[in-house]
Every structure is written in structure tokens, then in C-alpha cells.
Amino acid sequence: MTKTLNGRAARESADVVILGAGPAGLVLGILLQATGVDCVILERSSRARVESRARAGFLVPNTVRILERHGLAEGLKSRGQLHGSCEFRTEELRFRLDYKNLGNGGQHTVYPQQNLVTDLVAHFLGAGGRIRWETEALGVLDAEGERPYVTTREEDGRPGRWDGRFVAGCDGRWGAARRSLPAGAVRHHHDHGVSWLGLLAEAPPSLDAVGYALHGRGFAGHMARGPQITRYYLQCPRGMRPDAWSEERIWAELALRMGAERHGPLTEGPILERGTVDLECDVVEPLRHGSLLLAGDAASLTAPAAAKGANLAVLEAELLAGALTEVLTRGDSGALDRYSAQCLAHIWRAQEFTAWMTRLLHATPDGPFHGSLRRARLESLRTSRSHQDWFAENYVGV
Ligand code: RFL
To answer: Could you give all domains of the chain from N- to C-terminal order, each with its CATH number?
Structure first.
């Protein structure tokens, strides 16, 4: 419903006001829309920006199952690539883990996040969904009561207001939902103390596996994004500017750390995008504050070392959609009451594995003791079948 003030829309409403059109907000919107729940997505950026932001790529089997269940997997099924193998390299050795044959036997589907987001936007709008582009949520108010509302800066720069029965904070780590949490909310934060230079190269993958290189100069990672595009990561000094290293320096660092001389050359190409990321993580507890619910990165940030963030976002969006549908269509609040605890169990497992991966992959200034622990951990992974099964189960699970 829209109430007008001096001829312009000043105050609008929806049963569920969703903040953010990332994977979490879009999946939530689509599932609510499908069950007839009135909702709107408020998104700070333009549609073009949201559909071109390169981030995640590795989707675990559970994410694919969720998307399939709701008819959202057509794009990733036809254009995604299956990956079931990863390769660890050190200065002395290399070995592969065919994780598709280990643990519970799962593979990743590699499908760039911007493609997934583009598919989800098309699906939501095609089904009559409402997205307000370039509308920034400023704050969530009265969340402890039954009539929360969101204050906004509208596309034309004027202030606006959205009333709802629930507000879903899917607006990431720096969004309005987190800024609006009551004093009782706890944010557990941990800084892993390492940073990456993330690169997107217009170059075919150099190996048919995810590559993790543990080198004295720091970690290097190789992840296919498609037949012509590869993501590379280089551990870099904290605070380094993304353009500090020339393309030549980047390819030289990658070749050195990945042992290209011994294991085969890297296929080079122009660097399309680059950015630095500090490997930090956090968890907000609980995920429900009255009528305000958190999902995706707004609920918990995971360092990208184990590729869990987008997968958690989709899982939480499905759980939240089910819970909100039950309360809004049948008046049953049981699932909503369980939402936070249910998600936090998944989140902490993902955090635990991510922390394990992060410690394994990175050279830190902690001294030789830490270095020897890393070598022992890697040796156990190389030789112990039960350790490999544990790794595979966590690597493709959420
Ligand atoms: P998103 O995708 O950040 O979307 C949030 C949306 O909210 C909007 N927004 C606002 N809108 C209105 N008002 C405000 N005040 C707003 N503030 C923000 C933003 O414009 C945006 O559109 O959050 P969501 O939906 O929770 O999804 C989370 C994932 O995007 C994230 O966890 C992953 O990208 C993490 N991640 C990976 N996850 C995986 O599962 N697999 C991977 O392979 C993987 N690789 C990665 C990654 C993250 C990376 N970065 C960026 C650190 C690789 C990298 C380099």
C-alpha cells in the first residue's frame, strides 16, 4: 500500500521488507513471492552494478539442491562446470584430493555469483516481484515491536519510509540491518590477520583443479571461473593498495608460488579486476531481534578461504522464507523461533572449517612453530584417508 504526501510516494509498505538484492535477499524474495507473501526488496545499488559484481563462484551440492527445488537452477545447470578435485602444492611436493570420491562424495558447481544473481533477478521480476533499485536503507526502527519500519534514501535522493510486519536484513556486512541491532546483540569478530589480492584474469584455467599453493612468500590460489576466466589469489601485505603490483609482478609471484617451473606454466592473460580483502570473520548472535531477521553476510561473514558465504546465504534464505511463510499465512511462529539456532549451527561449522583452511594456507609471522604445525597438518591430509574424508565432507558441505 502507498500513502502519498504532496503528490509523491512518501510511505509505502510490504509484509516483508527485504534489504539487499544479493543471493540471500533474492532467494528469500523469490520463495516468499511464490507462496503469496507480500514483499519488496530495497537495493542500494543499480541493477547493472548488482548483476556485474564478481565475487563467489563455488556452489556446494546443497545450494544446487535448494536452487533446483525452487526452479532456480536452469542457468547453473546449463552453464556451470563441475569441479571435484583440488591440488595442494608446497615448495617440495604436490598432491591431489579427488574430493568427489571422498567423504560423502560431493562436487562444486562453478558458476559466477554475478550470473546467479542475474538469473535470480530475472526470475523474481518475471514473477511480478518488486525491487527498488538505488534505494538505500538507512535504519530499521521499532524492530522490537510488531510494526517495524525502514527509513530510506530513495532513488531521487529524498527520504522515504517502508512499513512492514518483518524486516529481513540481507544487506551484508556494512548494511543498515547490522547498524540497527539492539544493544543486546553480540557480534563475535575474528581477524585471521592475513590479506589477499584477489584477481580475475582473462585467461583459461592453468590446471583442471582448484590449486592451493603454500609458499614461503605466502599463499597463492587458482580457481577456474569458466573456460576463459580464472580467479587467482595472492597473499599480500595488510593495507597494500590493489594496484601496487604490476601485472608482470603478479604473474611472476603466481608462477613462483605455484611452482610453475616444476609443475607446468600458468596460462597468462590480462587482469580484468583486482581488489584486496582482509580475511576476517564474524557472527551475530542471535539472528532474530523481534521483527528483524538477519541472513547471509549480514548474519555472518566468513573469510573466503573455504568459499562458504554465498552457500550459507542461500541455505539461510530458504529457512527464513519457510519460517516467514508459516507465520504470515498460518500464524505459526515455531519455525521463526527456531530460525536463529538452526542457522547458527551451520554458521559455526562453516566458521570452524574456514578457520582451519585459513591456518593451513597462510604463512604468518607466528614463527617456526606455526610453520611446522602447517606442514604436519598438510602431511596428515596427504596421507590419512580419514582426514581426507573429513576434509571432503566439510569442503563441499554447509
Ligand atoms: P551480498 O551479496 O553482499 O548482497 C548484499 C546486498 O545488499 C546491498 N546493500 C544495501 N541495500 C540497501 N540498503 C543498504 N543500506 C545496503 N547495504 C548493502 C548491497 O548493494 C548488495 O547488493 O550479501 P548476501 O546476499 O548475504 O550474499 C553473500 C555472498 O555475496 C558472499 O558471502 C560471497 O560472495 C562470499 N564468497 C564466496 N562464497 C561462496 O559461497 N563461494 C565462493 O566461491 C566465494 N568466493 C566470496 C568469494 C567473497 C569474496 N569477497 C568479496 C570477499 C570470493 C571473494 C573474493
So the answer is: 4-83+110-188+282-354 (3.50.50.60), 86-108+190-280+367-395 (3.30.9.10)
Residue 159 has pLDDT above 80, yes or no: yes
* CA of residue 378 to ligand 1 center, whole Å: 30
Mean pLDDT for 227-247 is 96
Closest CA to 204 of 291, 138, 266: 266
For residue 286, whether the previous peptide bond is cis, meaning omega lies within 30 degrees of 0, is yes
Average pLDDT over residues 283-309: 96
What's this model's pTM, rounded to 2 decimal places? 0.95
pLDDT value of residue 5: 47
The amino acid occupying position 206 is S
Please state, in angstroms and rounded to a whole number, the distance separating the CA atoms of residues 107 and 72. 19
User: Which of 357, 390, 389 shows the shortest CA–CA distance to 374?
Assistant: 357
Query: Of 11, 52, 59, 57, which Cα lies nearest the Cα of 315?
Result: 59
Using the atom order of ligand 1, give the atom closest to the CA of residue 297.
26
Q: Is the pLDDT of residue 3 over 70?
A: no
- The DSSP string of 68-81 is HHTT--HHHHHH-E
Residue 4 has pLDDT above 90, yes or no: no
Q: What is the DSSP letter of 7?
A: T
Mean pLDDT for the stretch of residues 177-188: 93
Exactly one of 23, 232, 304, 362 is catalytic; name it.
Answer: 304
Q: Which three-class secondary structure state does DSSP give residue 335?
A: helix
Q: Which residues line ligand 1 (CB under 6 A)?
A: 19-25, 42-45, 50, 55-58, 113, 136-137, 170-172, 175-176, 198, 277, 296-297, 304, 307-311, 313
Reduce the DSSP state of residue 305 to 3 states and report it: helix
* DSSP class of 149: E
Q: What is the pLDDT of residues 134-147, one digit of tens each?
A: 999 999 999 999 99
* Nearest residue by C-alpha to atom 36 in ligand 1: 56
Q: Residue 364: is its pLDDT beyond 60?
A: yes
149-159 in b/e burial notation, b at 16+ Cβ within 10 A?
Answer: bbbbebeeeee
Distances (CA, A) of 95 to 84, 273, 352: 14, 30, 24
Instruction: For residue 32, give the amino acid letter.
Output: L
Give the three-class secondary structure for 126. helix
